[in-house]
Amino acid sequence: MMNEMRLRAWVYTREQLAAALESTGTEAVYAPSELLCADNADSADRLIALTPEFLGGAEDKTKRELLRIKELGFTHALAHTVGHIELLDKAGFTVHGGMRLNCTNSEAMRFFAECGLCDIIVSQELTVQRINSLEKPIPTGFIAYGKTALMLNRRCPVRDGRPCGGKDRSCDRQMTDRKGNKLNVLCSENSVEILNSDTLILSDRLADFRADFAVLRFTTETDTAAVTENYRKGRPPFREHFTRGLYYRGVS
Predict the structure, then answer these.
(1) How far apart are CA 248 and CA 173, in angstroms?
(2) What is d(CA 183, CA 173) in angstroms, rounded to the nearest whole number?
(3) 217 near 201, Cβ under 8 Å?
(4) pLDDT tens digits, 197-236
(5) Where are the beta strands (DSSP E) in 165-246?
(6) CA 77 – CA 85 distance, rounded (Å)
């Protein structure tokens, strides 16, 4: 059965971005601002810029980066925190809300709508029942695919706590937990994400959610087109090891 929910892609690499823009299955693409350039400016209406998760020490550089992409015609950006909302609004961008705003209830939904957000991705800690019961004054989405971030650090645990300094987000380094699971480490200039070893997959469960869009968050994947097609067609999980996240069991 073909899925009717609108899909969005969240990418980190140039290759993932190219594949997402070629896809007719996604209405919008979240992408790091450094990947936005004249070569993809003709898709500016579909692209939502991702700036650093931490603004501490990076605010001036972020302002310069926003000016650069604004001059190229990009006008949409994602707010990771409340601090991002003001920065992006002052820079003249249409502001989208990210899951790290931790929107978990209807009061928060109303607050972020009053802040001027055009849409929002709710917290991944919500159950499907709580997502469905939310008041939704603005279009609402949820993370429906990807390796969930277990932790977001300022310094890299693989580099003995030193600042990562990496500019290639497709870092191939891994950590090993006490059960022997391999955890990917996703690097950027001023933060490091430690990712879950299992992938969140809801390709066959989208009909359970009363929301406007579902976000496919790609991190280490190279098969993004195949994943998107599986979600479009509502196919069952296509990997041996996967998780449903907290959507059906909640926070214990």
Answers:
(1) 31
(2) 9
(3) no
(4) 789 999 999 999 999 999 999 988 888 999 999 999 999 9
(5) 174-176, 182-187, 192-195, 199-201, 213-217, 242-243
(6) 9
